[in-house]
Amino acid sequence: MRVSLLSTALVLSLIGTSLPITSLQAQDVIQASKNAPEVTQTPGSFADLAEHLLPAVVNISSTQKAQSEAEIQDMPAMPGLPEGSPFEHFFEEFMDRRIPNMPMEPQASLGSGFIIDAKNGYIITNNHVVKDAEEVRVTFHDDETVDAEIIGHDEKTDIAVLKVDTKGKSLTEVHLGDSDAIRVGDWILAIGNPFGLGGTVTAGIISARARDISSGPYDDFLQTDASINRGNSGGPMFNLKGEVIGINTAIFSPSGGSIGIGFAIPSALAKTVINQIIEYGRTRRGWLGVRIQHVTEEIAESLGLEEPIGALVASVTPDGPSEKAGLMLGDIILELNGKKVKEMRELPRLVAETPIDSEAKITYWRDGKKRTTTVHIGELEKAEETGLITQNDTGPEQNNGTAGQEIEELGITVAKLSDALRSQFGVVQNAKGLLITAIEPRSQAAQKGLFEGDVIEEVNQAKVEEPADLQKAIKKAQKAGRSSILMLINRDGDSRFIAIKIDDKE
C-alpha cells in the first residue's frame, strides 16, 4: 500500500543581510563554537545493523473484494435524454462498451510490516495497508509468502496487528524501543518495501518531534529525512540500538515521491494500541466526555490566564464522566494526573492512555484560579457505540438581516432571540442568547469567523439574553483592563468559544 500522501506547495525564503562583525562579536562566535558539543556518534556503516534487522521486516500485500456483477448493475444508469437527442446514441454506445469490459479483478495493495512476536506470529503494519482487505499475504525476508489474519486495527492511529501461523518457521522479531528518548538529530534506519521492490534500507536523522499533520486525534509524529516512499507504509523506524521507535506512515510531498519529509508513529503511542489489540482485538481508550479547543493568547487573556496553555472545554457530554465530576463550559484543563497539558492536542492522548474505570485527578482553571476534581474515566469505544458521542454539522449559515442593536466595539449587530428570528435565520431550538443579525466585513468578529445567524450564548462565562447584557460585559472587561472578551457561540447546535478583541476598531 502506498504511504499516506500529504500534498502542498512548498516555499522556502532565505533573507540575508551583510553587516560588519566587531572583534567582540567575533570572539563571541569563536567561544560559542568552542562550547558546542562534539559529535561522536556518526556511524561508519549501517551494514551490521541492517543485516541483523532485515529478517524481521516483511512485505505485505492485500487484496480488496472484487466488484461483482450485481454491484456493476447498481452503477448509475444512462442519463434520461429526450428522444431523438444527439447525445442519446453517444451514451448508449459508451455504456454498451464500458460495462462488459469493466475490470472485475480485486484491487491489490502493497505495504510493509515487522514481526514483534516470533513465537505467536504477531506482525505490525498500518491500518491503511490492510483496510477493507479480503485477503492479506505476508512475504518474509527469505521470499516465503503466507496468508495472514487481521487480529485488529485502529483507524485513529492507523495501526493494525496481523497474525501468521508460525508452525515449522523460525522467525526473527524486533522490539519496541522508547521513542520519548529519541532526540532531534539522532540517526535512524527505515526498512520497508518501497514501490514493491522488497527489503530496502534507508538512513537519516530525526528532523522533528511531535508533528501534527491533521491525520487523526492523536497526531504526535516523528519526522525524518530518511527516504520513505509508497510501499514503506507500516515499516519500522529503528534507532541505532536496533529498537523500533516508529512506524513509517506518511510522507509530505508535492510530487508523490520522497523529498526528505517523512512521518512515523512514535512507539510510545503505538505500544498501548498494539497491546490492547492483541489482548482485546480492539482498542479500549479512556474517555472524559468533553469537546475541547485550543487556548489562544486572546482566550487566555480574557480568562485571566497568564499564558495560553491547556485545553479549553467547549462542550460537556450530558451524563458523561466530566459532567459528573463538575467540569463546565469554559474550564481550561491544565493537568491530568499530574501531567501538564501544554497544548490542547496533548490531552486526548493522555486521556486515551489512562486506564478505564480509574480515578483521574484533573487540575483546571475557572474564575481566575486553579481548581481540582476527580473524574471516573469512561471508555471511548462504548461511548461511541451507545451514541453518547455525536458530531454536529458546523457549516456556516449566512442570512441577511438588519434587526437588532449595533455593538460598535465588536462590529456586529445583535438582537434578542425570538421565535420569528429563530425561524428567519434557521436557529436550532437548543440555542439561547443573542442572535447576530449583521457583521461589519472588516470587523474583529468577521476576522474571527463569526457569521450572521450565530447565537452568542455566553460572554466571559456569563449568560446573555439582551443586547444590554453584552454591552455590560464589554464595559466590565474594559474596566478590568482586558482587551478581549470570550464568547460562547452556538452555530447549528455546535457550541464553540471565540475570543474577540474589544479595543481595536476598524
Share of helix among residues? 10-25%
Question: What count of domains describes the coordinates?
Answer: 4
- Low-confidence spans: pLDDT under 50, at least 5 residues? 7-21, 390-403
CATH-derived architecture of the largest domain: Beta Barrel
Verbal overview:
The chain has 506 residues and is an alpha+beta fold. It folds into 4 domains: 51-62 and 108-163, Trypsin-like serine proteases (Thrombin, subunit H, Beta Barrel), CATH 2.40.10.10; 179-280, Trypsin-like serine proteases (Thrombin, subunit H, Beta Barrel), CATH 2.40.10; 286-385, Pdz3 Domain (Roll), CATH 2.30.42.10; 405-501, Pdz3 Domain. The protein has 13 helices and 28 strands.
Q: What is the compact description of this entry?
A:
With 506 residues, the protein is an alpha+beta fold.
Features:
506 residues, alpha+beta, Thrombin, subunit H, Pdz3 Domain, 4 domains, seven-stranded antiparallel sheet, six-stranded antiparallel barrel, 13 helices
What are the SSEs and their pairings?
Elements: E1 4-6, H1 23-35, H2 47-53, E2 57-64, H3 69-73, H4 88-98, E3 108-117, E4 122-125, H5 127-130, E5 133-139, E6 145-154, E7 159-163, E8 187-192, E9 200-211, E10 221-224, E11 236-238, E12 244-252, E13 262-266, H6 267-280, E14 286-287, E15 290-293, H7 297-302, E16 311-316, H8 321-325, E17 332-336, E18 339-340, H9 346-352, E19 359-366, E20 369-376, E21 378-379, H10 380-385, E22 405-407, E23 412-416, H11 419-425, E24 434-439, H12 444-447, E25 455-459, E26 462-463, H13 467-479, E27 484-491, E28 494-501
